[in-house]
Amino acid sequence: MDLAEKLGVLADAAKYDVACTSSGIDRDAQRGCLGSTTSAGICHSFTADGRCITLLKVLMTNACVYDCAYCVNRVSNEGVRRVAFKPRELADLTIGFYRRNYIEGLFLSSGVVRNPDFTTELMIQTLEILRFEHGFRGYIHAKAVPGTSPELIDRLGHLADRMSVNLELPSQQSLALLAPDKSRQDILAPMRRIRENIAEDREVRAMMRRQTAYLAQTRPKRKTRAYAPAGQSTQMIVGATPESDFQILKLSGALYQHMGLKRVFFSAYLPVNDDVRLPSSDAVQLDREHRLYQADWLLRFYDFNVDEIIDADHPFLDPYVDPKANWALNHLDLFPVEVNTAPYEMLLRVPGIGVKGAKLIMKARRERALGEEELRRLGVAYKRARYFVTCNGRYGGVGVAFERDALRARLMAPIEGGRHGRRSARTCEGQLSLFEEVETPEKARARGQARRLDAAPAALAEPAGPATPERLFAC
Amino acid sequence: MLARGEQAELFSEVAYAYDGSLEGLLSAIFAAYERRENPTDVEPRFRLQPRLDQRVSLIDVNLEHAERVRAGLAGSCGPAAYSAMKAAALCSEAGSGTAAYRFVRYAYDAAPSRRRAFSDVAHPDVAPLRRIWKRVGTERERMLQFVRFEELEGGLWFARCNPQDSVIPLVMDHFASRFNTQAFVIYDETHGVAGVYEGRDWYLVNVADGGSLNIPPATAREAQMRAAWKAFYRSVSVEARYNPELRRHFMPKRLWRNITEMQEDLPGLSRKGSPCA
Ligand code: SF4
Fold first, then answer.
1. Is A429 inside any structural domain?
2. Which residues, numbered 173 to 192 in chain B, qualify as contacts with chain A under a Cβ-Cβ cut-off of 8 Å?
3. N or C: which end of chain B has fewer CB within 10 A?
4. Cis ω before A336 (30° cut-off from 0)
5. Which residue's CA is the closest to the ligand 1 atom numbered 1?
6. pLDDT band at B133; cut points 50, 70, 90
């Protein structure tokens, strides 16, 4: 099998991992070494579904001894061809891509070969070749396999910029049901270990900096790499199990707070296997994923806390208005605000004004009083903002009653998801059935019948897959 | 031809035509102050389309004048404003030189504070320059993203690109520090400019006619790498999420012909433009 083919298989198997950023760390180039990182990250290409490609995202191998229900690589999928990279082969490929400006670095994950420790050793070997032989200073994201021993987690973290352990599913019951080989403990232990290592590493570094200012001779001889300087992230699958948005957001809020995570990624469940434990609709809950990300954004950049966005009585996010607009509609007594005097925190809460817009408003209003024209020029979505602001005392939303329902009608915005793909919005609720199997291209591939994206979609209509025991049981 | 004096009476307005360089633009601004004129257009020669009532005045580059304007601007209006002037000189959009000139006029003659003039984002003389600044910044970013290098015989790395604005000078630092000892050339086929880095410093070369561009063949490994990259690109798409509109938004089609993984998706693209065809 040639390199391109092998890469195709191992990238295909890794693509369902949505976490793919090269951001969070600035590292200048160094004479004689290859590469640098920029804190904003750089997208080097975009997939046909419009997602950013920034890292070479591959698996070390797609062979796996575990049997997670939702995963293509699970051991019970016998139709899948298993391949593996040798550490040197993968390191050289990464360098080759990097020199051509195809990528910012490497995102390395793996199926579990033999056991978690053996798998992690292979990953460490690869990263050591990259960092020490090639002097590679680009970005590396390494995924810790649940159940890896703490010593190996420590070594891996010193080679990587970002570490992640996938939470996989939002509750323990779901995990036990769909990923029986992974326990909550297996996942949380490395996560905690990474958090501690990052904190400790920071402390030691800060201490060293303080000391060396006075005692130059105590400077360490060999500079050790920082421990995962771009932090830690995780990912969970949304829509494979019955957890509500409320539970999911509560959980991610807690992860930000207690685990010090940089990002929590959500991945809309995509049916790749036929399995009675999984929902059998072929709908992909992309709209739900989208709303969850909007809510997550509010948590991270807009100083919202979870309770403001969602509560146990309304455990799902409104599919028709975004969570920020929803908050504003529930707090009409605080609006309208005067753009020329409102504090920054309040501007941030106006629908149609983003972080950039709010900052520009703060800057611009020092020079002149802002009116509608100026707001538009500053990149504010005035069409939405007008109902919630006054400009020099003038209210822009005249003509629409200032009450919840009327304003909600104005703010409703269908999610612009393009005209293709299987978005959940397209399937009506009654279609979700537990007793019918639905055929999807991903399932075909999991059985080893590959189909390319641009090929004719005729394959969609083909009758359901072979009669596995699970299927027979289901019917 | 009319004599100069009569000309001035006949034409009510004046347009300045500079050579298209940053130094030219700065010289033109200097000239406007020195001659106590207020040109309605300040544009590169190749772009200027004078209106009927306009007299055209050709401005020669004067490095000393340019340096005085540069120092004054960077000092009193701040580095951001100066970087926007640079962007205006590199921008291909009609009116970008004029926008830069109008900003200087505003900052020096009318603004309450020069230092904060560029922050007056909503002012009609500032907003256009800021927009150009942003546009050129976006194009620069796109080049950081989409420039694709190939390895040529002899150890040179070569990239061909077609940015809408002439942003090569703005990306050389980034690639030079990133690739470090790796020598490379980035060739902008739209503007006939090549950025050359030989492992220590970089410089620009004008290759307007394309004649002086002599590209050795690609290495044997190159084809393998391209194939691997294309295989990777194809397999990372999630079919259920297919959304080509979104992809075109992030990766405009006009750039596809120089993006390795997109080339085969462009029907009728002649591959003779690429050195490793
Ligand atoms: S551990 Fe589970 S999710 Fe990971 S590759 Fe194996 S089967 Fe898939």
1. no
2. 175, 177-182
3. N
4. yes
5. A66
6. very high
